[in-house]
Structures are given as structure tokens and as C-alpha cells.
Amino acid sequence: MEEAKFALLPIEVLTDHRLTLIETRVLGAILSFRAKNTNVSWPSRESISERCGYSTGTISNATKTLVKKGWLRKKKAVFNGPNEYEVTVPEAHKPALESVESHRTSEVHQFGEECANQSSEVHRSGDVHRTDEHEPHRTGEHIPHRSGEPNLPRRDQGRDQGEEEAASRPLSTEKATRPTPVPSPTKTPQCPQEEILALYHEILPEMTVHRDWTPTRRKHLAARWASDTRRQNLDYWKNLFEWIRESDFLMGRVTGIGGKPFRCSLEWIVNQSNFTKITERKYHEDRAA
């Protein structure tokens, strides 16, 4: 039996009664494409359609209403690729979360005040009440002992005055507050080299066939993958190769320098300088931007 797959949804999706069934399923489908530590993804409408079962037209309408309701931010792709989707929680649902955090902070401050009060009580009424005239000198003296107990040296013997003053202060309520968590850096997903190479051969069969994907070539492809989060999914590379296919120059359909047609390869594409020229439409100047 095929192993079940799961996707995480914000709990606010269930409490927002404005969402229709179609909007909820489309939103869940978009969330299922996101990486582990981000709410941004780049699925094509066709990919969303396969996952939730609605037509691409229905998905377009649903994403428009999700943007109006505050659940999505959409950004157009650099070239003819999928849109960028960022899932957000509408502002109307955030006060409840903020009130919970405020309640927790209040409890922490109350706990700190109780600690300070208890500490003050201990300093005011200890086990042994000492007056100034009976207090032993701070250097070389011993605590008065009860009969039958050994004469032990004072715990604070040898401390300087600054340390004793610090030890006698009540506990600060600031130390009892919860420290601000430091967000862990987002881990870049591993570059699927073989899958991208297979897409290149499938969409651009006329181009150079790479039978040996060398470490240097792997290094350049991994660098392009890691340099932008929009590039960290296979849909991006599929649309990139289809975009290259529309260029007469890159596909060798026009005469190049020296009278010979130029044909690109994946090794040439993932070179940083060439990759930038492709995404900046240098080789698609005959097409509307």
C-alpha cells in the first residue's frame, strides 16, 4: 500500500468561517508544496490542480479571493514560470495569539515579583537575628555555633564587598522573564542534480547530451539552486528550460558568430554569467517583455 503523505496547515484555517471548501482545499494544496522552514512556494497551476482536483480556472479564482481575505500574497515570476505564493495568517486572527503571549508574559513577571518578595522576607527575618553590635567582623571571624556543633567558617568568608552586596540584593524580575528565542537559520534543500539533468534532456533533446556530470558542473548547478529560494523546486527548472526553448538563438535556429548556429548546454546554462543573461531576457529580445 502506498505510504500516506501529510501537509501542515495553520489552525486559523479551521476557525476562519469566511473560507469556502474550494478556497480551503486550494490553500492546503499550495501549503503542501512549501519547504520545511518557509511559507513560500512556487507550484504551477497544473501542479495545484493535480493535488486538489480543481480546474486551473477555478484555482485562479480561488487564489484571487484568498489574496483579498489575507491568506495569500502572489508575486509574478521572472519569466514564463509559476507564480510565487506566500501563505499568511490574516490580521483578524492574530489578536487571539497575541493575548495568549501577553498572558504568559504577565505570569512570568508575577512569578519574578513573588521571588523578589520571598527574598526580601528572608533578609528581614532569618533563622538568627543579628544586631550591629553582635555581628562578627567580616574577615577572620566564625559564625557563633550552637553547643555540640563544630565551629564552621562562614560561607561568605573571603568575599569582597562587591560580591556580598550583589548576593544580598533581591532577585530581579528581569532575570525571571523568558529569553527571546533566536530563530534557527533556514536550511537550504539539497539540489536534486539528477532530476534537473533529466528535465534538461527531456525538454531540450536537441542540446548537448551530458553523459558525465562532473564535480565542477555539479558545483555550478548547486550554486544557482542555492542562490535564490525561488529556484529551489523542480517547477522552476522545468519552466526555465521551456523558456530557453523559445529562444531562436539558444536553440540554434539563427546564425551565430562565424556563420555557425549556437546551441547551449546545461553546463553553459548554469554558468553564473550566462544564467544571469538568460533570466534578464538577453536572448529573448525579440519577444515582448
Strand content: under 5%
Briefly note the structural class of the backbone.
mainly alpha
List the uncertain runs: 96-101, 127-150
> How many distinct folded domains?
3
Radius of gyration of CA atoms, rounded to a whole number: 33 Å
pLDDT average, as an integer? 75
Enumerate the strands of the largest sheet in spatial order, edge to edge or round the barrel: 1-3-2
Q: What would the principal axes of the Cα set say about the shape? A: globular
Explain this structure to me?
Helix 2 packs across helix 4. The protein has 11 helices and 3 strands. Residues 96-101 and 127-150 have low confidence and may be disordered. The chain has 3 domains: 12-89, Arc Repressor Mutant, subunit A, CATH 1.10.10.10; 92-123 and 169-177; 193-284, no CATH class. The chain has a 3-stranded antiparallel β-sheet with strand order 1-3-2. With 289 residues, the chain is mostly helical.
Summarize the structure.
The chain is mainly alpha-helical.
Give keywords.
single chain, 289 residues, mainly alpha, Arc Repressor Mutant, subunit A, 3 domains, three-stranded antiparallel sheet, 11 helices, 3 strands, 42% helix
Explain the layout of strands and helices.
Elements: H1 12-15, H2 21-31, E1 40-41, H3 45-52, H4 56-68, E2 72-75, E3 84-87, H5 94-124, H6 161-168, H7 193-203, H8 215-226, H9 234-245, H10 266-269, H11 272-279
Antiparallel strand pairs: 1-3, 2-3
Helix pairs in contact: 2-3, 2-4, 7-9
